């Protein structure tokens, strides 16, 4: 039965070998002690690496969301999920949303926005891994993909930090944002409600992963064709 199949917990995912091999490390291991500045590679190459990581993270987040839907969310509930009243955990962040706002913000604020989004999702994805481990019959594909995204998000954070220091030559002012209610749950919710909250969390992450990719690609465009970036 559906409820027997679900049970209280979280989600996890598998990542095919292509996802594990195509991403280039962002940690600049050729430069011991220089993790956050990456002096051995150019700003252009560093930005390309960061964009590549963001693209992969968004692609896998789409796969995760689809897989979770197929496994745990009956079709009628998929239509209701957007009206369930669950707010995304990054809703309170001062992130530009409209096209005009995004076009008007500075390169510095583009990078700061990406960093805020990345940092805001690190702990929730760890939480998600733990909850998915408690699901009955959650496939390795789901668990492994979730773990992969969580690890790559930390790598992306390192790359964005390096970009900020390389491009802006300044220390970070951003503080990590987290949503305590996502990570602390003293009362176990009903199974279906728990699953829907996990589904909402994953859907929100997919949206924010797309924002990260979009902001970084806009930044790249500004470096090459400043006046023709839509």
UniProtKB/TrEMBL annotation:
<protein>
    <submittedName>
        <fullName>Somatolactin</fullName>
    </submittedName>
</protein>
<dbReference type="GO" id="GO:0046427">
    <property type="term" value="P:positive regulation of receptor signaling pathway via JAK-STAT"/>
</dbReference>
<keyword id="KW-0732">Signal</keyword>
<dbReference type="GO" id="GO:0060396">
    <property type="term" value="P:growth hormone receptor signaling pathway"/>
</dbReference>
<dbReference type="InterPro" id="IPR018116">
    <property type="entry name" value="Somatotropin_CS"/>
</dbReference>
<keyword id="KW-0325">Glycoprotein</keyword>
<keyword id="KW-0372">Hormone</keyword>
<dbReference type="GO" id="GO:0070186">
    <property type="term" value="F:growth hormone activity"/>
</dbReference>
<dbReference type="GO" id="GO:0005615">
    <property type="term" value="C:extracellular space"/>
</dbReference>
<keyword id="KW-1015">Disulfide bond</keyword>
<feature type="signal peptide">
    <location>
        <begin position="1"/>
        <end position="23"/>
    </location>
</feature>
<dbReference type="Pfam" id="PF00103">
    <property type="entry name" value="Hormone_1"/>
</dbReference>
<dbReference type="GO" id="GO:0005131">
    <property type="term" value="F:growth hormone receptor binding"/>
</dbReference>
<dbReference type="GO" id="GO:0048513">
    <property type="term" value="P:animal organ development"/>
</dbReference>
<comment type="similarity">
    <text>Belongs to the somatotropin/prolactin family.</text>
</comment>
<keyword id="KW-0964">Secreted</keyword>
<dbReference type="GO" id="GO:0045927">
    <property type="term" value="P:positive regulation of growth"/>
</dbReference>
<dbReference type="GO" id="GO:0031667">
    <property type="term" value="P:response to nutrient levels"/>
</dbReference>
<dbReference type="InterPro" id="IPR009079">
    <property type="entry name" value="4_helix_cytokine-like_core"/>
</dbReference>
<dbReference type="InterPro" id="IPR001400">
    <property type="entry name" value="Somatotropin/Prolactin"/>
</dbReference>
